[in-house]
Amino acid sequence: MPAAKSIKRKVKPAHAPHRLLQALLGVALVAAVFATLMVRLAVMREGYRLSALRAQIDELKESNRTLKLKVAELASHSRLRALAAKYRMTPPARGQVVVVP
């Protein structure tokens, strides 16, 4: 009775695609973690750069304020009058000033 006997075929389990899938998922996970770390590093680096630029802006604002104060001191009328007297300068006489149209 050969017909009653069924032929059993040994089927090899397909473990290779399962392992390949695990490997691909592992590589994808490592790539995602690496990308996240690189983005965090870039954000942190830009944060430090932004902080340094803000400090530089503050320094430049203070320098600008100091220079404006110095200009105001040098251009003050009382200082200019004192310098004019020191160098014996007098107001111009009539006719010394010519206005060009």
Q: What's the tally of helices?
A: 2
Assess the beta-strand content as a share of residues.
under 5%
Low-pLDDT residue intervals, each spanning 5 or more residues: none
Structural class: mainly alpha
How many strand elements? 0
Major sheet:
none
Element pattern in H and E: HH
CA gyration radius, whole angstroms: 43 Å
The percentage helix is: 55-70%
Note the main attributes of this structure.
101 residues, 69% helix, rod-shaped
Structural overview:
The protein is built from two helices and no strands. It is an all-alpha fold and 101 residues long. The chain has a domain at 18-86. It is rod-shaped, with a radius of gyration of 43 Å. The protein starts with 14 loop residues before the first helix and ends in a 15-residue tail after the last helix.
Short synopsis of the structure:
The chain has 101 residues and is mainly α. The protein has a domain at 18-86. It has 2 helices and no strands.
SSE layout and pairings?
Elements: H1 15-74, H2 77-86
